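Quick board copy: two proteins, each given as sequence then tokens.
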Amino acid sequence: MTAPLGPTDAEGAINEAAKRYSNWGRWGEDDVLGTLNFLDEAKRREGAALVRRGASFSLSQRFDMNGPQKGWRRRTNPVHTMLATGTDAALGSQGFPHGIGGADDVIAMPLQCSTQWDGLGHIFDHGKAWNGRDAAKTVTSDGDLVTGIEHMAPYVAGRGVLLDVGRVIGDERGELPDGFAITEEHLTATAEAHGVAVGRGDIVVVRTGRLARSRREGWGDYAGGDSPGLSFTTAGWLHTSEIAAIATDTWGFEVRPNEFEGAFQPLHQVVIPNMGLLIGEMWDPDALADDCAHDGVYEFWLTAAPLPITGAVGSPVNPVAVK
């Protein structure tokens, strides 16, 4: 684990990083995609060419009542309810002709209760949303009026790269301890160990092993508690690498407890509203990671489109990696 960055000047460090790594105006004042602009048609062709075996892996946790949520920030696990069932059909109570019957269901859930993307309207910095917009006029009770996640729905597909930091840096189980801050050096060393490069337009998946531990020991404080994650100091790497998106197997993406005393998710504050970076959380890369360790190939075609929910600031997703 790394030592805290400092007990007193979190705001100064956040302000400095926000200014240094800002992408405001980079793609014009009307931009709604942020770093997804790096994922262009050529990058998608490159990603599609990586499919050789046809083996596919879902990188999503399940969406059910047995999930990790415990009510923090009013987030609950999904509630799945049947509207019509086989029992109704067998009893002939559905009113359909010639013996046909059917089942229907409904689900109610916060959009960020399981595997998901953080949209660009999810986090603000001193009242500013992505690209310098006024947060009060961007996201209202009607939703995200400008950068709703529906705008990203066609574009999140391309070259995926797994950085299994847990296996390279972690313990014999391939897991990092809570509070472990993953630095640029850890990311670089992991990429080198895997023999894979990370660069412009990539969708990066970072495995810490935190989800694997929760499966073994129970959810505990997986949703909101201590966890390994990216160090605040990786902001520069996230910016200069020009990746399109990054996702982790943890609840909060960045290390928790956060590295500044009294801070709350400072890396989020830099990379979402200022950098315009698409962040995924609570992904499940474990089966993919096992396969990558077996065949030594850590790049793949990855499609992870958010649901086009108008005005949403986040979305459930079922990422699929194909090798």
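And the next:
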Amino acid sequence: MKQSPYILVVNGAKVRRPVFVLGAPHSGVGLLAHALSRSPGFHLTTGHEGVLRAVYAVARRPSVAEGKATGAASLLRDAFAEAWHLTPHTCPRCGAGPRSARESAGPCPHAGEVEHYGDASPDLLYSAAALDTAFDNAAFVQIIRDGRDVVADMLDDEQTLAWFRPGMANLDQELPNPFFGIEDEDERRAYRTMSMAAKCALRWRSAVRLSARLRGTLGADRLKTLRYEDVCGDEVRAAEELREFTGARVSAVELMRTESPGIGSWRSRLSAEQGDDVLASARPELERLGYLRPA
């Protein structure tokens, strides 16, 4: 007998069709998250402590989510139930002034205005399969960006590079290891001597491969894929697509950046050696996505 779909109740109301924003590091997830979070009636969280603990528990140990494991799904549901719960203390609209314990624990006056829930936490992509199990009515928005620009940004981000420190990469426990982009024993042996640019490229390669698999398992009604270069070049069209897919009133203005979008900036930011390392790790994916002309 088919199991009844799980419906999460938060702030006294059912969460229907939550939206999760996915992508490799520095692919534009933050840009989409900003626009969605500014939409009226949309409560979107990013980096909630409980969510991050659950996300990395699944992302760094993908074996826990194999076979539609209900444990990983329950872990994520509990994390989002906490993250999405609105009180005067956690609501961004209630202000951050001092409040009594009773006021902080009580219901938020804005909770009833929320129409959509979502999350755009870092590395959420690696938990996509578990999220699909946890919320079988969820909508996923994923964003793809030129891997060479992604690597250039990753190399300038100390928080991203921290994952590559000795002791952080759990390569001996998990193989394949999508979080670090290691797919077989040969890559695991070579990984320790790879350059930082090559390691970053492997993470991007793994992310776009996961995105491709999602397109093969989820229908167009549940998955929308955007290209960073198109979003930054045509914000009006991107906002229209997001409005149609999520039901949220996304403004094109919120997708506009005040600084350069960095499209093609890898040409001046990556050395020739770093560029070669990226190609060695991810040429097929760059070609498949149209960022590189086939050799």
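Board note added afterward: Residues 17-288 form a domain with the Rossmann fold fold (CATH 3.40.50.300).
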